[in-house]
Amino acid sequence: MTTLPDYNAMSDAEFRQTVRAFVETNYPDIPRYSLSRLHWDEVKPWYMVLSENGWICPTWPRDHGGMGLNAGKHLILIEEFERYGAARVNDIGPVMLGPLLLKHGTEAQKAHFLPRILSGEDVWAQGYSEPGAGSDLAAVRCEAVLDGGEWVINGQKTWCTLGMDANWIFILARTDKTVKKQAGISFLLVPMDARGVTIRNIENLELEAEFCEVFFDDVRVPADHIVGRINDGWSVAKALLGHERVFIGAPRLSAAALSRLKRIAQHSGIWDDPVFRDRYVALQCDVLDLSDLFETYVDRLRDGREIGADVAMLKIFQSELYQRISELMMQVAEEDAGLRHAPEDVRQLHAAATYLSARPTTIFGGSTEIMRNVLAKAVLDLPA
Amino acid sequence: MDASMNEDWQDNARMIVESARAVVPADGALSRVRKARFNGLGFDPKVMQQAAELGWPLMWIGEEAGGLGLGLRETCALMEVLGRGLVPEPVLSTMMAGALLQEALPETVMTGEAVILTAWQDATGALTWQGGAEAGHLTGPKVNLRGAAGADLFAIVTGAGLAIVPRSAEGLTIETAETLDGGTMDRLHMTGVAADFLPCTQVDTVLQDATLAHSAYLLGLADRALEITLDYLRVRKQFDRPIGSFQALQHRATEMKIQLELTRAAIAATARRFDTGADVATRAAGAARCKLRAADLAMLVSREAVQMHGAMGITDEADIGLFVRKAMTEANLFGSPRQQRRLLATRLDQEEAA
After folding, report:
1. What was the pLDDT predicted at A298?
2. Residue B39 near residue B110 (C-beta atoms within 8 A)
3. Tens digits of residue pLDDT in A222-231
4. Domain shared by B217 and B188, yes or no
5. Cβ-based interface (< 8 Å): residues of A facing B
6. Using CA atoms, how far apart are residues B311 and B321, in angstroms rounded to an integer?
7. Is A244 part of the annotated catalytic residue set?
8. By residue range, what is the domain housing residue B66?
9. Residue A145 and residue A225 share a domain
10. CA–CA dist A334, A85 (Å, integer)
11. B92 with B164, same domain?
12. Which residues of chain B have pLDDT under 70?
């Protein structure tokens, strides 16, 4: 791999041009603008192109094989990929585990795992939630016990996005049942092909297998497959919430949905209907005001200032707005809203697909209700 | 506005906000505001005098014409503080007169000897200002002035130009109605009022500036109403717990906060665009968007505040009621949320054409 230029030294406009040219030149012959996630067998060519060019881990430091982008440049990269409709790759390794190992991993772990993420040899899944531990994540019961220099793992993880594509999974496991629940959790790394690991796909509302359950039945992994200290997994996992939190609140999903709403309205001949327009302009203002609020966070990142708990406001408003737009799309689609497949000429404008894809956004990554609890205490200083 | 290019806007804004302390007590006390209600004017002429001494009527007059030449970022910072304090004096209306008249603003207004208010609106529920002139005279109505009885002069905006007339001018009568907040909403009736018309090409721009500035006032109002309500949620106990610990109230409080921060961000970004040379279309859409959000915010927060104060919220004794009545009086000035959405909906086709 050749040495990458210092992208942060480029002007924003120059970097944007660089990214635009890169994606236009290198994007493989796979779907664009897909509302559902592509699986590894479909998206791998794009992952490999990014990997071969040193672009797969935009935020990792350059000396660890990343692009070393600052938050402002990273945002431009995301915007340009979205603009082109580039598919999202299996990015749990680049986005979650990599930064976590860089912060908490041993030198041996970094040396072993990071290159394998960069090369696409390892595809990671996240094993946090369990049937009894969703919003109350610290209630995890999946248990790991040390036995003869090995962890023995028993239990279940669920809602593992694209887990069926992964060859490794990181999990939060219960390693002490006698203490406060947050204080008895460890962060473990488990190969998916270990004896005793079973995967069961879960079909989502869109009838696609985007996530799965993972069962652990006396699964044994070496004792050094732990990140951070024993029983310190909760703080290890929490430290992961970096500037990615800002991007979850980016207006791009809502803005894209709004433009689909407009095209559906034009296509169905109600674009001039004043009843529709009243609703439409209110949503348009919501998207524009969200953009202005989002920019204040981008400015903070650019200036190197801390992002606090208040960033949850972005995620709440963004996800609820996306849903409200999709709700109006459903009305505008009239009786066609109920068709399983949109008519051929408006395949891109399938209201039902947007409506369904908007559902998880208020649930994953901290449900709206939990986010509001956090805001009430951390930002509004209301009593517990 | 010339100083808009000024990189020192933050320093200017800080100084102006500091100067507003003369009018808005730092501790948020509203006794002065409460006292000025229903006194026939709804405000205190001495405070208008103070405002003139602080140079506020000169805010939007260029430095070359002897004004402060400040932009929308500074103005919005000031208006937000005035909104927090529910300041009833018609400061914005005098700023508009300054912006429209520039060096033609009468000397007596600059010194604070005279108060000038702007009369632009032709009819309630419409944002048109072209009426009011006929055969070289002023004829017709101008509506929705606040505190007209306290004015010495009016700057009358018409399609034929701008006229300065004294309150006592022959053919001019004022019809006054009390408003919920303790002030007045006034209608000028003009019948053949003699006037010299000054040319004025800036009316739309000044109205957009004023709409944005008024949005900042509503933001300040909502911000302070939310603060007061959060304080109440922290101390009011029922079932042996502060009521602010109840999730039903916490979630509603976070919604107010989100709407507030959206409004703040939209106003700040729009003011910056105004100050750095936005085109006409961007200005019109920006002002409408901010006014829409700010009016809905002020109504939302003040009404939620009443509910969260319980029975205290429906007493006149509690300050929160002052915010409710002020929001109800001010929210629809410069165009109700419905008007703003209509304006934006009409613009969709222009966007299309562009």
Report:
1. 86
2. no
3. 999 999 999 9
4. no
5. 274, 277-278, 280-282, 284-285, 288-290, 292-293, 295-296, 310, 313, 316-317, 369, 372-373, 375-377, 379-384
6. 11
7. yes
8. 2-194
9. yes
10. 27
11. yes
12. 1-7, 352-354
